Amino acid sequence: MHTAKDFASDQEPKWCPGCGDHAVLQQLKNVMPELDVAPENVVFVSGIGCSSRLPYYMATYGVHGIHGRALPMATGLKVSRPELSVWVATGDGDALSIGGNHFIHTLRRNPDLNVVLFNNEIYGLTKGQYSPTSKIGLRTITSPSGVIDQPFNTAALTIGSGGSFFARAFDRDGKYLRSILKRAALHKGTSLVEIYQNCPIFNNAAFEAFATPDKKADNTVYLEQSKPLVFGKDKNKGIRLDGFTPVVVDLDKEGLSTSDLWVHNEADINKASILARFADDRAQTEEVLPRPFGVFYAEERVTYEDALTDQIREAQKNGIATLEDLLKGESSYVIK
Questions:
Q1: Cα–Cα nearest to 62, from 82, 83, 39
Q2: Percent of the chain having pLDDT more than 70?
Q3: Cystine design at 163: which of 15, 158, 230, 243 (Cβ 3.0–4.6 Å)?
Q4: β pairing state of 165-170 and 114-119
């Protein structure tokens, strides 16, 4: 039986004190023994960024790749070695900027990868550039007068790209983060977990509304399958749908019960798309909506490596013995 220590390398993490990466690393080490996979059958792949140092700190196989290219490398590995548990450690800059094209195409292809996206809404490794998820108005070294780019909504982008699993967690919420990572690992297909992660140096307190006890209860809603969307310090607030518009209600003042509320269904892609917009400044509502955490959407469908294996098997049945024969086909010709 493995323990968290079996997944810890002898390398000291080179992250700043207070960085949320430390908490994510610890929960990854904690969850690994629960998956019943030996360290030698696990691979962590990363690109470039603070979060991309993670493979060094796990006592598993690892690949530290180049900027934005972690997902295609991980896909190739999974196709060639489908028995391995393949994880990707990436950040909002690495995945959504230079790696943006790979991001959307990996999601639609659906290889069986566990993607952990550290979102601190800043480029930390390159000293504070604004990233694709930085909020409008944020002043950084590359936006001294404030960011004017509309930020990506990771949840909406994932679901809109055909992703089969999206969940969100928070670095300070260790027990819950661990449960979400386990859920993601058990999903067969590309699981995308966005983790709100604090950068104390270049974007400190970006997620403070979801961190402090006095604010967290009124600003977050935790998603549970087949449970109503209830939140608030006294659990007296909830979400109803007025058509396709989410509305915050006060159960006590309006004489409502939890049976009147929106009930979460992970298989409902339309409601998942609405949930994704809770974090969007462009949401078509005047309500101050709580930020959802948990599994937004989960769909079981064929993985890329399984579909490819089936194609190869079928080709071999038809007498095509090698890849060269398959590519040559019946209409090739030789230039002399």
A1: 39
A2: 97
A3: 158
A4: unpaired
